[in-house]
Structures are given as structure tokens and as C-alpha cells.
Amino acid sequence: QVHLVESGGGLVQAGGSLRLSCAASGNIFSINLMGWYRQAPGKQREMVATITRDGIPNYADSVKGRFTISRDNAKNTVYLQMNSLKPEDTAVYYCRIILPRNYWGQGTQVTVSS
Questions:
Q1: Does 28 score more than 90 pLDDT?
Q2: How many helices (H) and strands (E) would you count in the chain?
Q3: Cβ 65 vs Cβ 55: under 8 Å
Q4: How far apart are CA 79 and CA 6, in angstroms?
């Protein structure tokens, strides 16, 4: 069994910053892909950023230059540093890991006020 614990969400004004963390625990040998997704009200869940085991990131065009994904393989933890936040970044942010089996976190709310 694998368990994901997310933290770092909250309320911030436009232009502000937040840092999300997601720690994985349980029966884990290694994690191939780690990433962050988000879902705004009335919209489909979308990819925000992913990072491979070797540290290669991939970003949605909407967050390039503002968000930075990183991971600590020793801690099985992935981070998302979010800068220059915009109201349109408001969503529930979900952590995802692929072992290769797929696991999702419970989600953390990020609200950006204008």
C-alpha cells in the first residue's frame, strides 16, 4: 500500500507564492514519475508539472516560468514552488506518482485572490 500526504495549499493574493509538498510512503522501491495536477470548479483535471526520476521536468504552458517542480528521491517527496500566482491558478492541486502503478493524493486547495 502506498500513501501520499500533500501540504502547502492555502489562500494567497495575486502575485504571491506558495510551495506544495507531497510525501509518499509505503511499499515503494522507486518512483518513476512524480507530478502535480489541478482541477478548477467545472473544469477537467489538467497536468501542471511532472518530473522524471532523473529530474527532467515538464510544465504546462500556463505555468512555465512561474512554477518549479523538484523532487527528493531519498525522501520520496515532490515539491511545487509556485510564484507570481494568478487568480486562474485557483484549483485543487493533486499529487500523482507512477511506480509504475498510479497513485493520487487527496488534493490540497490553492486559492488566489485578485
A1: no
A2: 0, 11
A3: no
A4: 10
